[in-house]
Specification:
Structural class: mainly alpha
Number of strands: 0
Distance between the termini: 47 Å
Radius of gyration: 18 Å
Largest sheet: none
Strand content: under 5%
Length: 110
Amino acid sequence: ALLHGAQDGFSETDLQKRMEMIHNNIVRAQSILTELTVSLDMERGGEIARQLKDLYDFFHMTLGNVNITKDSATDLSTIFRISRLISDLRDACVQISSAEQAPPRQPGPA
């Protein structure tokens, strides 16, 4: 959902609207990635926080490159890949959060 507006921008026939749609949606996504990055607790998060920071930085940089070129085939494919990776990461975070909030399992009979 984060990059659907940018994806839709590639199908816009009016060049000015197309460039604005892609740009505005990518900048919005980059802002969200920046907020996620600065919210990481690098001291307490350890290796996981460092890996998340690297992922967020990669997404941010890649989207910046797409925003510069806006080449239909290549960049649309890149946005789909980034969108899928972000979605997978979000789903994993939801699963982890749900597992942490679940009541502890009672041991079964031995």
